[in-house]
């Protein structure tokens, strides 16, 4: 196995960087180091696509970086690998890559780019998480026309709602007071399926089209790391020379890739069964009001029906199970509520959030069904949870949301917190009736066999369980610290 040895002019210590013992030696691009380059930067440049800080090459070289002389000593005589497409030197050699594929311009050009730069077979993967049938039409033809060997499509809607959305709903996870985590929850279910497909087709790598500025790259890759740390990861937007749409179109034409003819939206959107997000264009200025024609899942509340609509949500152990008395599957329940909520202009959120990578981002979200469900769960908990439990749950919900937003779905901490949420919501069973009217969701009734609310105690009438005269002693004891402080200040 290749080793990179570093010799310092001021130290006799040798630093060794070892690559994966399971990977054969491979050839990479030449590496150039400026005077300020560090060993860590050198390792990253040498192997951006696989996460091993190691240069695999058949050439000895020396680099002077701030008095540090770095010499690569190789144990392999592997010759540089050339691409079967045009004879160029490869960035690395992979066997088969599973690409998260949407059929848009970016993922269409990633297919030939992977083949050209890694000499690999490309298997495209598309997850159906409720983005709409129109986005799934003609994908196989597009993928194969771009150079993919096959397209794998999996219907993940039920798994997405049951195993990802509903746990967040039960936990009460909301990021930075507003965001209901629509994209954050979708990425790990897609990445999980990609790992499964990679195993099924015998791939040694996975790839995505996320940019180097966003949160999604982290969400995808942390899931890959958690579920199969041996998979190589290729992120073209962090490697290639393509800088924008025009470059991508030129690359597509050069490689005979059919450019998608659909009209490009002025907004960057992400849609799934839980929500629809909008970013970009005029939204990049937080002072601008969103245009009404931007919205796609909900009507303008002003144009919503003039009569309210009542819905009854059945809940079992913290999870919704029925709508108006009809038991539905998780995905079906959410789908119906999206239609109902959208009709009344429910679930619009405009916010400026802090991205994981450090920058602020303005986004507008439509989450009609999710907003209704969050309201229903919270209102039922007002009956079934005591004060201390509710406070702890709310505190943990903030951290839970942060972990999900940051892509740490498969982190043991989130899983442990989820076990806590599942345990304390065992009695959150019952039903909630809500009134939907012109963008608002208001509770009108709550019922639970485990309700901690007792009318005979809460009534203003005196009773045997609660004697109002007992309050005097309670107030004196509860207010004792305040009374002592006041006495001290007044010299009493």
From TrEMBL:
GO terms for cellular component: cytoplasm. PANTHER family: ARGININOSUCCINATE SYNTHASE (PTHR11587). One of its GO terms (molecular function) is ATP binding. It holds the Pfam family Arginosuc_synth. This is argininosuccinate synthase. It comes from the Eukaryota. NCBIfam families: argG, PRK00509.1. The keyword Transit peptide does not apply. The lineage of its organism: Eukaryota, Viridiplantae, Streptophyta, Embryophyta, Tracheophyta. Its EC number is 6.3.4.5. PROSITE patterns: ARGININOSUCCIN_SYN_1, ARGININOSUCCIN_SYN_2.
